[in-house]
Design brief:
This is Saccharopine dehydrogenase. It comes from Halopiger xanaduensis (strain DSM 18323 / JCM 14033 / SH-6). By secondary structure, the protein is α/β, with parallel strands linked by helices. It has two domains: about 170 residues, Rossmann fold, CATH 3.40.50.720; about 200 residues, Dihydrodipicolinate Reductase, domain 2, CATH 3.30.360.10. About 40% of the residues lie in helices and about 25% in strands. The protein has 14 helices and 16 strands. The strands form three sheets. It has a seven-stranded parallel beta sheet, sandwiched between helices. A seven-stranded mixed beta sheet has the order 10-11-12-7-13-14-16. A two-stranded antiparallel sheet has the order 8-9. β10 and β11 form a beta hairpin. α3 crosses α4, α4 packs parallel to α5 and α8 runs antiparallel to α11.
Length: about 375
């Protein structure tokens, strides 16, 4: 039976992933063994005792150490849940390439996805799949992007967006702090381009009335481009007015937050925050995902400039469970399909590997709603000023 090494298994999301995987294994719904792993020996030992699964403690500073640990564990696939992924993905990918081990992670960090894309040839030569962003941070919008381009193959621009107000986990907060200096990002004319934080605001109907959303540098920017080949991609997120103002102020505060001691202090402070949403909150939560594909003429870049109108335009939507629920479902589903040989070797995106219907196979996901809205969407609630 193949084995999956879950790195960062004792973090908030990693622990959710471990428990769900074990439940599936014990119910006979998952055909793999689970190995727990991480760098914190005390937390790992506590989890190993609690879950009664093998554990492997190893740090990531030395590529030889990582490769030796993967060989010792005899892992067939690494599922990386340890953020910030800018610190963990590179060493684990290198270890996987050296040992012929498949790699899956749940990053939403654009630089990480881009760096793994750069290792496409290395993965292909080693006969391993390198599949980042198998989480809510990319899967729904990546699959929606592929669906939109199936509907409009001539599309030159994709605008994607998400309406999900949920408290982030400590790992997510630390990841955001780590990327303070990067600002925003879009794909323009086939090239990744950095733009100011909250660069553009647009009113979007995610399925329950128009609301203001701002551009965000989420992993979907990269995955949607690689999956579809569309040269212009921007991703928006619903933001109340106070949050929009805070994001825009980042442009001026970034130099103060850039020094490493300041970032490390903020990440330590983040550790004092509650780990993540409760089980009840996760069960009740839902998110709304919107996407638009356009064939642009002159102007109208990213659908947010009224100076021009598209020659063609299609819109589709998804409704999903809470982001944490989708992350666990998507990552485990992607890992099982990688183990089954359903993904090609080298760098892959979720929809590129498994097609746009991948998201619809996840429990609780509804869609695609083409030019329509989810019937179960609650009525519009005014959460911010225009």
């Amino acid at each position: 039976m193949p084995s999956v090494l879950l790195y960062g298994s004792y973090g908030f999301v990693g622990n959710l992933m471990a428990r769900e995987a074990i439940d599936r294994i014990e119910d006979g719904d998952a055909d793999f063994d689970l190995l727990l792993a991480g760098r914190n020996g005390d937390r790992l030992r506590e989890q190993v005792d609690d879950l009664e699964r093998p554990g492997y403690r190893f740090a990531l500073e030395d590529p030889d150490t990582v490769a030796e640990a993967l060989e010792r564990a005899e892992a067939d696939c690494v599922l990386n849940c340890a953020g910030p992924f800018s610190n963990t993905a590179g060493p684990l990918v290198e270890g996987c390439v050296r040992t012929g081990t498949d790699y899956v992670d749940i990053t939403g960090e654009i630089p990480v996805i881009e760096s793994i894309a750069d290792r496409d040839a290395d993965g292909a030569d080693a006969g391993v799949t390198l599949l980042p962003a198998a989480a809510f941070s990319a899967v729904p919008m990546d699959c929606l992007a592929a669906h939109l381009v199936d509907r409009l193959p001539e599309a030159t621009t994709l605008a994607m967006g998400v309406d999900s107000l949920r408290p982030p986990s400590i790992g997510t907060v630390r990841t955001l702090i780590e990327g303070f200096e990067d600002g925003g990002a879009v794909y323009r004319d086939g090239r990744l381009e950095h733009v100011p934080t909250a660069w553009r605001t647009r009113r979007i109907d995610f399925g329950r009335g128009e609301r203001p959303a701002v551009t965000m540098p989420t992993g979907d920017v990269s995955t949607a481009h690689y999956t579809t080949g569309v040269p212009n991609v921007a991703v928006y997120a619903l933001m109340p007015q106070p949050a929009r103002l805070a994001l825009k102020s980042h442009r001026y505060l970034a130099p103060l937050l850039e020094p490493t001691p300041v970032r490390e202090g903020l990440k330590w402070f983040a550790g004092l925050v509650r780990e993540g949403p409760s089980s009840r909150s996760r069960k009740r939560g839902s998110t709304y995902v919107w996407g638009e594909a356009r064939v642009e003429d002159d102007g109208g870049e990213f659908g947010g400039d009224e100076s021009g109108e598209p020659t063609e335009r299609v819109v589709s939507r998804l409704q999903t469970p809470d982001a944490y629920v989708v992350t666990v479902e998507a990552a485990l589903a992607a890992t099982e399909r990688v183990l089954a040989g359903d993904a090609e070797d080298g760098f892959q995106t979720p929809a590129g590997a498994f097609g746009p219907e991948f998201v619809l196979a996840l429990e609780g996901v509804e869609g695609f709603f083409d030019e329509s809205k989810p019937e179960s969407a609650p009525p519009e609630v005014d959460v911010s000023a225009p």
